[in-house]
Amino acid sequence: MTSDPENHCAVKESWMSDAPDTAAEALDSFFKKIPKAALAFSGGTDSSLVLYSAKKAGCEIRPYFVKSQFQPQFELDDAKRLCGQLGVELTVLPLNALSDPAVASNPPDRCYSCKKRVFRKILDASARGGCSLVVDGTNASDDAGDRPGMAALRELHIRSPLAECGITKAQVRKISRGYGLFTADKPSYACLATRVPAGRTITDELLSRVEGAENALFAMGFTDFRVRVLGDSARLQLPEAQLEKAFGRREQIRAALKDEFSSVLLDLTAR
User: Fold this and answer.
1) Angle formed by the axes of helices 73-86 and 45-56, to 10°?
2) The domain spanning residue 20 has which CATH number?
3) Sign of CA dihedral 243, 244, 250, 256
4) DSSP bridge pairs for 228
5) From CA 119, how far away is CA 151, in angstroms rounded?
């Protein structure tokens, strides 16, 4: 679900001193006090701003992308693209998320077990590189009560600069636009495992079907959607503004997804 590079401005060549608001200044101040840090980098809007701000402030920042079955290829592509623009080396750490029964069995707290594995992998890699501090892109709008994985971050002492500076998602996007980051308006994207209902075993084959279906819809021009698994059917959740378009192209959608799912359902409750 990445966007065409030609539709976004490139990262500005010089670091901006006139931040869009005091939120950017707070983030700048945060990193000026930290000489070195490792970043759990997803290629999304939040962690992209963290990466840019850290480098801007002179922090020696090392981004790590943990690639498991839960991350679609476009996320890694976006991560590589931004790091290339900033001249920062990206370290990709492979992870077989489904080798852990606590993750593959997909209990309600699956995210907790998964986050622990992901961040322990980053902590181990960053420690080998001589860095003990790991930061992530959690922002002040993220609800800890609705995210089991955030408990894992607290237990592992992961710091969240955006949240600590009180920076919301809306502010993240505003600051990112001011810096010319192509990720500024990138839709939020939850990992592929969230498409599978709790209690249903997650398999490589099921995740591949979901990713294939989402890639097909993206190629048709749909954005900011989810393909949820319902039995052997795909339940499409789209923004309200795209529902009419989806209904009008229902035969094309059905044909595009027929190799992945036996039937396609359109959820009229807009996401």
Assistant:
1) 20
2) 3.40.50.620
3) negative
4) 235
5) 12
**pLDDT tens sequence across 220-267:** 999 999 999 999 999 999 999 999 999 999 999 999 999 999 999 999
**What is the DSSP annotation of 164-192?**
HTT--HHHHHHHHHHHT-TTTTPPP---G
66 and 158 share a domain? yes
> Is 105 buried (19+), middle (13-18) or exposed (0-12) by CB count in 10 A?
middle
Question: H helices within the chain, ranges in order?
Answer: 22-32, 45-56, 73-86, 101-104, 110-128, 149-155, 161-164, 169-179, 204-219, 240-248, 250-257
Q: What's the token pair of residue 32? A: 């000026």
User: Does one domain contain both 252 and 126?
Assistant: no
Element (H, E) at 65: strand 60-67
> What does pTM read for this prediction?
0.89
Q: What is the pLDDT of residues 101-158, one digit of tens each?
A: 999 999 999 999 999 999 999 999 999 999 999 999 999 998 765 577 889 999 999 9
Please report whether residue 168 resides in a domain. yes
Verify that 29 and 162 share a domain, yes or no: yes
Q: Quick one: 143 and 245 in the same domain?
A: no
State whether residue 90 is helix, strand or coil. Answer: coil
Q: How many Å apart are CA 271 and CA 266, to the nearest integer?
A: 12
**Chain center to CA of 257:** 24
233-237/226-230 β-pairing: antiparallel
Task: Count Cβ atoms within 10 A of the Cβ of residue 6 and give its class: 0-12 exposed, 13-18 middle, 19 or more buried.
Answer: exposed
